[in-house]
Structure formats: structure tokens, C-alpha cells
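Hello again,

I reread your note about wanting to compare the complex against the isolated chains. To keep things tidy I'm splitting this into two emails, and this first one only covers the full assembly. Below are the input lines as submitted, including protein chains and any nucleic acid or small-molecule components. They are followed by the predicted structure of everything together. The single-chain runs will come separately.
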Amino acid sequence: MKYAMCPNCGRRLCKGEPGTKVEIECPKCGENAVVVIEDNDMHIHKKPPLTDKPIHQHA
Ligand SMILES: [Zn+2]
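Full-complex prediction:
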């Protein structure tokens, strides 16, 4: 089990098994986040509030 933390405020959001992908809204700050749990890694990204079309960004 791995714990996902809010990318905005650090609140613990959820836990899950490898292979899990979830979208979750932080109950503390309202941040929408996408959590992807892999075997030995975990990715958390902020989710943009507008989701009608894909957003491609280059850093
Ligand atoms: Zn938060």
C-alpha cells in the first residue's frame, strides 16, 4: 500500500495498490489530483479544473 498526498497542501488523500489510477479531490483545500500508483513509484499531478478537452503543456 502507498499513500497519496495532496500536491497542494500535503494532506493524506488515499492509499492504493500498484496499478491503481484515481482522481480525487482534496477535502482540505479542494485541489483536484490524479494519482497513479505503480509497482515502485507513485505519480501525483494536479488536475486542471477545466476538463472538456485535453491540455498539452510543455514545461
Ligand atoms: Zn489539499
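For quick reference: The pocket of zinc ion is lined by residues 6, 8-9, 11, 26, 28-29, 31 (CB under 6 Å).

B.
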